[in-house]
Design a protein that fits this description.
single chain, 284 residues, mainly alpha, 0% strand, globular
Length: 284
């Protein structure tokens, strides 16, 4: 599956909130349900939820300066857990996939990820994503990636081609910037102060982090993909790259990004609103 980063680079995620809201489960076509399962998106969302809970702890450290009582900490943890509701996340992703892929033939996508090497790619991606929840393993992955990049190893060149073919860095950076904006918009909506911030102010604040987000995104993507695809042969990665460059592969990449970006933007907006309200409650 073409990789979408999860919650936190700075204040990361992404926004394009669908006005129609998520479809009911029974309205999602069977082939979309099958594609969702073949791509192991349910497992990936579970991992992203775990990442998101950790992101909520980061927000608490960054925004709620000073000591926080156990009661308030439990209250905040409950709010974050509710925002990262797994059933809602899954429903939103499925609904978005159904909208983007409506009327398109998803059979070749399902076929590729049901057979080898596609099915092995998915297994390795999920395994690596879960393993890299461990901070120490993440640092090791980043160090190994830095060496591969510095030495221009053949596997790095192959991964670089894959990243460029799928525009992974740019799509993730745009998603992160949009998510930052959603977070700040949520904060302003929940507690508009006198005068407040203009749209230009918010955009300037978000854009000021673009360089940091781009650097973190690039580091993360190389660390993740070099780790996840390490057991694959060059031929397997070439086959995956060839699929990614087909019309079906390109469409799937776009559909996954739209689905996850919309979900993360919803989450980021809610986190911003909750953060503002929670801080106001602490001050009362």
């Amino acid at each position: 599956m073409f990789q979408r980063l999860a919650a936190a680079l700075a204040l990361a995620g992404s926004l394009v909130l669908a006005a129609a809201g998520p479809l009911r489960a029974e309205e999602v076509p069977a082939e979309i349900e099958q594609l969702f399962d073949v791509l192991a998106l349910g497992e990936m969302l579970e991992i992203m939820r775990e990442e998101g809970i950790g992101y909520g702890e980061q927000i608490a450290q960054d925004l709620f300066m000073g000591p926080v009582t156990d009661r308030l900490a439990r209250e905040w943890d409950g709010i974050v857990a509710e925002i990262y509701d797994l059933d809602r996340m899954q429903a939103e992703v499925k609904a978005s996939l159904a909208r983007v892929l409506d009327g398109r033939d998803v059979g070749p996508m399902i076929d590729f990820f049901t057979a080898l090497p596609g099915s092995e790619v998915i297994r390795l991606e999920v395994t690596a994503r879960r393993a890299l929840l461990d901070d120490e393993l993440m640092e090791i992955a980043k160090e190994n990636a830095a060496i591969a990049i510095a030495d221009s190893l053949p596997r790095y060149e192959l991964i670089r081609r894959f990243i460029e073919a799928n525009d992974l860095i740019e799509l993730n950076v745009v998603g992160a910037l949009n998510s930052n904006l959603a977070f700040f918009v949520g904060m302003m909506d929940a507690a508009p102060g006198p005068g407040g911030f203009s749209s230009d102010d918010l955009l300037a604040e978000v854009w000021s982090r673009e360089g940091e987000i781009r650097a973190n995104t690039t580091e993360w993507i190389y660390a993740f993909l070099l780790t996840a695809y390490h057991p694959l042969s060059d031929a397997d990665i070439e086959a995956y790259l060839a699929f990614a460059e087909t019309e079906q592969g390109s469409l799937l990449n776009r559909a996954v990004f739209v689905a996850f970006d919309g979900m993360f933007e919803t989450i980021s907006l809610a986190l911003g609103q909750a953060s503002s309200r929670f801080m106001l409650g602490m001050e009362l």
